[in-house]
Amino acid sequence: MRFATQTVVSIITPTYNAARFITETIQSVKEQTFSSWEMIIVDDCSLDNTVDIVKIEIEKDSRIRLIELKNNSGPANARNRAITSAKGNFLAFLDSDDLWQPQKLERQLMFMEKNNLAFSYTDYRIMTEVGEKTDIVFQVPEKMDYKDLLKNTIIGTLTVMLDKRKIGKVQMPLYRDCSEDYGLWLSILSKGIQAYGLNEELAIYRKCENSLSSNKLKSARKTWNTYRKVEKINIPYSLWCFVNYSLNALKKHSRA
């Protein structure tokens, strides 16, 4: 499939103290078989030499851009700054310690354009903090609507691609005690849009010991707060969704 000449994917990458991983993350983008992309890296006041590393990469590849925030304000604000400055019709999300397979953008764009989709996500593999790939691959459901997503947080942020022309303006909610990316997916699907899964392993999630996903209690609390603060769902229905979320999370984490 040939893509329209104006097809550009804007890759949204927040970063904070990611000097150990950012070069490998950038390299996985540079190795993409689809080359019409821009990578917008927003540094959230890193205390290490992340910015210096990114600047070196910019000298090698002009498709990479850097935004340096003046105040540390969390990944949601960093992503929103990148989204605001994005030039592409498509948005893709990649955190500064995760990786993509070389055909990720090409395969996902083909999937979306062939099926006229606004929102897609893919399977992904887990790797350890030191970069060793595990046997754990999360296979995603064929599609999800708003009610499905309220009960299951299976969509990996590093796998999401959005078509701005179909979805319109998007911003992540700025509640630091909520799950900001989950809140954005819910806000999109609440408009009647459905998200569709591509059952191909196209991304690799780095599971760090201090990550939110490793802290199950904190993750659960953020999910609950997303129901109540972002979606403003009443307590009985929030409890119903949370029970289902917990059961799905137990199935997911029993493998990881």
UniProtKB/TrEMBL annotation:
> Where does the record place a coiled coil?
none
Q: Which family does it belong to?
A: Belongs to the glycosyltransferase 2 family.
Which Pfam families does this entry report, sorted A to Z? Answer: Glycos_transf_2
Q: What is its EC number?
A: 2.4.-.-
Where the record annotates domain Glycosyltransferase 2-like, the positions are 10-120
Specify the protein name: Glycosyltransferase family 2 protein
Cross-referenced PANTHER family = GLYCOSYLTRANSFERASE, UDP-GLCNAC:BETAGAL BETA-1,3-N-ACETYLGLUCOSAMINYLTRANSFERASE-LIKE PROTEIN 1
